[in-house]
Amino acid sequence: MKKIAIFLFFVLLTAALTACGGSVTYKDGTYTGQSAMYEGEDDGSGAGYGVVKLTIKDNKITACEYDTYELDGTLKDENYGKKDGEVANQDFYNRAQRAVRAVPMYAEKLLETGDLSKVDGISGATISYNEFKEAVTDALNQAKK
Hints:
Strands 1-2-3 form a three-stranded antiparallel β-sheet. By secondary structure, it is α+β, with helices and mostly antiparallel strands. It is built from three helices and three strands, in the order αβββαα.
């Protein structure tokens, strides 16, 4: 009897939360969100911020672009991780480029799933992932009705 009561309690609780929560609706349009400036790790890696551009149509994300930038506004690209145009530390450069390669994957996964909670972090690109989540949240907050 106690198990049935607990089961019914959770069923009713779930139903109540679903009924009260409602779903968020978004205005059609294109929204740009930005993460906070991240000062980087002790070794200087990861410093920068992320910018996402979302297009929403009929309450669905129909386009997503994501880029990451160094603190000075320089796009993190094939040169990210170099010093004065040269690879000074191969390990550092490899880690930086792993993060650069992950950036479009985050945007693709969000577009595929339409749900930020279903976008997983990629090993070696955790900072970019956190910036992505923050930037998407910023853009979605702008789009709320």
